[in-house]
Design a protein that fits this description.
about 400 residues, alpha+beta, Beta-lactamase, seven-stranded antiparallel beta sheet, three-stranded antiparallel beta sheet, 14 helices
């Protein structure tokens, strides 16, 4: 689940803000312009002071950190502040991590992109759906929002009247037994769908012959040097929390901040806490920068596969995937793609965590924010984009 819609708010306003500085590095009043780090500090300090941002921010250029800061508490009950190593649920930022895991298996010849999923998962009941179509959200499978609403009681598991987290295997078994109707023919349309990545997670574990979390750790976390990254269900299913976890909060009816896993109306957070791939991956902002550097440095994927990952997917009619929901984007193998091809990103919105991981391919910049208090206010994103999207180096 993502908050892709905010991007449209950024583009035009960012362009106007960029014009406020002239080529001499001065603001519109003729004074020396503040550095990018100073501007970012002023922005996020203001947002935090006005109760609009709690979380961590990391901005880098060519792998060098330009700005890093933490705002707010990791655990309000214990009074623990956020720190650089705080672990957040990445939410749907888990998708490019899962996609990278799959593509590493492809490079080693263990998986074929255009092979039917049923080659690797015999129980998968849709013989025409391919691995590539899962990666690009063009499978035509019933959307997760519809599936969990319509078939929730049939998928959910309980013990002593309490919900148990649904796992990737539970979802694949449900698909095999119930074979719910598809939304479209495979490859015909694009539809952002968590089910695709839940199935991919099960495929990875099956092909790797290991638990899904162990496979992702071996294929991505370890070679990338992601020190605190983890598969969250490994802890959830054992009734534990990963070390350094930043508790996720949502607002109750009276405006009070409540832990999402116990907040009224948020029971689905517990029910859907056992899957890996659609989400289910956590870590720090520094871990995401390590992932970015490993991709940029060729430690995870070769040049051809890296290009394929950020190339717009094709539909069966030969047209490129095009998402016109608020702003025109495309989708590759696990990444949202800017129309101009200059940047790729993924966002996340799950269980109180709001996340953003953006890579500027042309300027080698990386922008990461991870929030643990869920707010639906994106009015400040244009200002952020104006700062990080400027022509001059962020280190000047």
């Amino acid at each position: 689940m993502t908050h892709l819609r905010f991007v449209a708010l950024v583009c035009f306003s960012a362009a106007l803000a960029l014009r406020a500085q002239d080529s001499q590095g001065k603001d519109s009043g003729g004074q020396p312009a503040a550095t990018a780090a100073q501007q970012l500090d002023a922005l996020f300090s203001r947002l935090h002071a006005t109760d609009r941002f709690d979380g961590v921010v990391l901005v880098a250029e060519a792998g060098e950190t330009v700005f890093e800061a933490q705002f707010g508490l990791a655990d309000a009950a214990a009074g623990l502040p956020l720190v650089p190593e705080s672990v957040f649920g990445y939410a749907s930022i888990g998708k490019p991590i899962m996609a990278t895991t799959v593509l590493r298996l492809v490079e080693r010849g263990l998986v074929e992109l255009d092979a039917p999923v049923a080659r690797y998962l015999e129980e998968f009941p849709y013989p025409k759906v391919t691995v590539r179509q899962l990666l690009t959200h063009t499978s035509g499978l019933l959307n997760h929002l519809v599936m969990f609403e319509r078939y929730r009681d049939r998928i959910a598991r309980h013990e002593d009247g309490k919900p148990l987290p649904i796992t990737n295997l539970d979802v694949v078994r449900f698909l095999a037994s119930a074979k719910p109707e598809t939304q479209s023919e495979p490859g015909a349309t694009w539809d952002y769908n968590n089910i695709n990545y839940i199935v991919l997670g099960h495929l990875v574990g099956t092909v790797a012959g290991a638990p899904i979390g162990a496979a992702v750790r071996r294929e991505v976390f370890e070679p990338a040097g992601m020190k605190t990254a983890c598969a969250l269900p490994e802890y959830t299913l054992a009734g534990k929390q990963p070390p350094g976890l930043a508790v996720a909060y949502v607002q109750g009816d009276n405006g009070e901040w409540l832990p999402a896993d116990t907040a009224p109306g948020w029971e689905f957070v517990t029910e859907l806490a056992g899957t890996i791939g659609d989400g289910g991956i956590g870590g720090s902002a520094r871990d995401l920068l390590a992932f970015d550097r490993a991709l940029a440095g060729g430690k995870l994927l070769g040049p051809a596969m890296l290009r394929a990952a950020v190339t717009p997917a094709k539909l069966a009619d030969g047209s490129s995937v095009r998402n016109e929901n608020w702003v025109v984007t495309s989708y590759g193998l696990g990444w949202t793609l800017a129309e101009d091809g200059r940047s790729v990103w993924h966002t996340g919105d799950w269980g109180g965590y709001l996340t953003w991981f953006k890579r500027y391919l042309d300027t080698d910049r990386t922008v990461i924010y991870l929030m643990n208090r869920r707010r639906q206010d994106w009015s400040w994103l244009a200002e952020l984009e104006a700062i990080v999207g400027r022509e001059a180096s962020l280190r000047e």
